[in-house]
Design brief:
By secondary structure, the chain is an alpha+beta fold. The chain is built from eleven helices and 13 strands. It folds into two domains: 126 residues, PurM-like, N-terminal domain (60s Ribosomal Protein L30, Chain: A); 178 residues, Alpha-Beta Complex (Phosphoribosyl-aminoimidazole Synthetase, Chain A, domain 2). The strands form two sheets. Strands 8-10-7-11-9-12-13 form a seven-stranded mixed sheet. A hairpin with a 6-residue loop joins strand 1 and strand 2. The chain starts with 15 loop residues before the first helix and ends with a helix. The structure holds adenosine-5'-diphosphate (ADP) and magnesium ion (MG). The site of magnesium ion has 6 residues, from strand 8.
Length: 347
């Protein structure tokens, strides 16, 4: 049995999230011939002959991923589905089914769980997803939602993290940093409220970033757009932890070097004003903020003309031979990108 008093213990923080996954799964052996892709991408792939089935699980934990003092339960249900669908879209596939695991304490009335399900059902209706099962249990330590999404990837369209090639262009959908700044506003107003419960939260004018944090959308529309444009990304990942961390994942999996231009990173104008107010750097927010659930991908140079005029897509850099990732700053300095995404935000 696990002895918590054993002095040989290794703190999880010494490995970090990705280090821990690597440590626990390094001896995993794949036995089924149908397993086309195991651990290490946004979703695993099962070979179904004509197509792949993509599967991905993500968990949202109270106190770690959300704070119920400002996260409406319906939004939480909606967001928990988005976070999972995003990983299927990141394979260039279509999500089709979800299962929902929920651990809930008895401090919650039935109506509260109903609200979570209103959000889950709304997400399923909008994204054409069938809820096909799950699990329900009591919890003594807060609310936990664990969702598994299943989808279909047409074989010629598959986009893994590992396919980026020398000279490819690096493309990102939408804009970045909004979800993180939305969180800053919510945290600030929570503090104001805790100090003076008579004060009304000041959320006006911040609708866009609040929506990015509380009610994100996953980019099914981008997968449909790419299909219409007849572009198959050479590699793809969704941005859950921050641009920096995701760029490094693609670089590592593809064994190439990513170069990103600071002045090309798409950032909503409202974020510039807000960053001044919070004394933050917009680039740092976009690189490390996370939770934007945009898609980051690479395309072959010859596909440039197909995407260049699209307002939903921004070319932010290029791939070359080598390793790691660089940021080319506004004053043309080249700095190495670090995977601060996840760890940075936890500090
Ligand atoms: P994402 O951010 O796209 O959800 P993660 O960083 O959570 O991806 O996971 C990276 C990879 O590690 C995925 O392939 C995921 O399935 C796998 N993984 C994560 N946690 C575990 C675990 N506890 N056991 C086995 N595989 C895991
Ligand atoms: Mg992902």
């Amino acid at each position: 049995m696990f002895d918590s008093k054993n002095p040989q213990r290794t703190p999880i923080s010494s490995l970090g999230e990705f280090g821990l996954i690597e440590h626990l799964t390094k001896n995993t052996i794949l036995k089924q011939p149908s397993t086309a892709l195991g651990i290490g991408d946004d979703a695993a792939l099962i070979d179904q002959g004509e197509y792949y089935t993509a599967i991905s699980t993500d968990m949202l934990v109270e106190g770690i991923h959300f704070d119920l003092s400002y996260m409406p339960l319906k939004h939480l249900g909606y967001k928990s589905v988005m976070v999972n669908l995003s990983d299927i879209y990141a394979m260039n596939g279509m999500a089709q089914h979800i299962t929902v695991g929920i651990a809930v304490s008895n401090r919650f009335p039935v109506e509260a769980v109903e609200e979570i399900y209103e959000g889950i059902n709304l997400a399923c209706a909008r994204y054409n997803i069938d809820l096909i099962g799950g699990d329900t249990t009591a919890s003594h330590s807060g609310l936990i939602l664990s969702i598994t999404a299943v989808g279909r990837v047409e074989k010629p369209k598959l986009a893994k993290r590992s396919g980026a090639k020398n000279n490819d262009l690096v493309v990102v959908s939408g804009d970045l940093g909004g979800a993180y700044m939305g969180l800053q506003i919510l945290e600030r107003e929570k503090q104001v409220y805790l100090e003076n419960p008579d004060m009304q939260p000041e959320l006006n004018g911040h609708e866009y970033i609040l929506e990015r944090q509380l009610k994100p959308e996953s980019r099914k529309d981008i997968i449909e757009l790419l299909e219409g444009l007849e572009v198959v990304p050479t590699s793809m990942i969704d941005i859950s932890d921050g641009l920096s961390s995701e760029v490094l994942h693609l670089a590592k999996s593809s064994e190439v070097q990513f170069n990103i231009y600071e002045n090309k990173i798409p950032i909503d104008p409202s974020i510039f004003t807000l960053c001044e107010e919070f004394n933050m750097n917009t680039t740092t927010v976009a690189l490390s903020g996370g939770e934007d659930y945009e898609l980051l991908f690479t395309i072959a140079l010859e596909d440039h003309d197909k995407i260049k005029a699209n307002p939903n897509l921004t070319i932010i850099g290029y791939v070359k031979e080598g390793s790691g990732a660089h940021l080319i700053t506004r004053d043309e300095k080249v700095v190495e990108l670090k995977a601060q995404g996840f760890k940075h935000m936890e500090e």
